[in-house]
Every structure is written in structure tokens, then in C-alpha cells.
Amino acid sequence: MECKTGQLVFEDFLRTEYSEENLLFWLACEDYRKTTSQTEITTAAKRIYTEFVQVDAPRQINIDCVTRESIRENLSQPWPNCFDRAQRLIYGLMENDCYPRFLKSEMYQALLEQAEQQ
């Protein structure tokens, strides 16, 4: 996640699997955690909820209903860590499911070859 190029290639790979919302949500949570202004926290929390968490969101992530409901309940008074549980769940999903497939993919192999040539 620290290598910007690798992150972009991983996002492209996830897009081919119709699951790029996982990485986009994880990245949005990372940005959210760095937010300091309460006004910005509230705005960002609502945006993340609307885009990724709520049922039928445009990029709905696959989390359990208890986590989803907990986030919804905390939207009126969001705090910097309110997405942590969902972010951990999504990270685990990527780590155990998507990322191993990515490492075997042609996209990743091409990235490795390119890195070796430099």
C-alpha cells in the first residue's frame, strides 16, 4: 500500500475483478483518519458512508450489518476512528482474497519485470 505505482496497478487489477471499491474505501479511510477539523470530519464521514457503506451505495463494500449499523449510528457525531472496524475487515478481505490473486496475475508480473529493468 505504500508504493504508489503498485497501488495503482493493484487498483487496476481490482477493477478487472469488479472490486476496486475495497481499495478506494481503504484509501478514503486513511485520508479520513488524517482529518483534524470537526467540520471536515463530519463531511468526510458522510461522504464515505454514502459512497461505500450504506446499503445500495454506488461502491458498496461487503461488511456485516452490525458494523454497517454502528457506522450509521455514529454519523451524527463521527470521530476519527469510526471506520476502523470496517477498514480492518476490508483490509483482511483484500489481504486474504484479492491480493494473493493479484500476486499471481499478469499485471503484477509485468510490474515486476518493469521494476527489474530499471
From TrEMBL:
Entry-linked Pfam families: RGS (PF00615)
InterPro entries according to UniProt: RGS (IPR016137), RGS_sf (IPR036305), RGS_subdomain_2 (IPR044926)
Location of the RGS domain: 1-112
Highest taxon listed in the record's lineage: Eukaryota
Entry annotated with the keyword DNA damage: no
Main location: membrane
Keywords from the named record: Cell membrane, Cytoplasm, GTPase activation, Membrane
Entry keyword Membrane: yes
Cellular location(s): Cell membrane; Cytoplasm, Cytosol
GO cellular component, one term: plasma membrane
Topology in membrane: Peripheral membrane protein
Molecular function per GO: GTPase activator activity
PROSITE patterns: RGS
Transmembrane segments: none
Name this polypeptide is given: Regulator of G-protein signaling 1
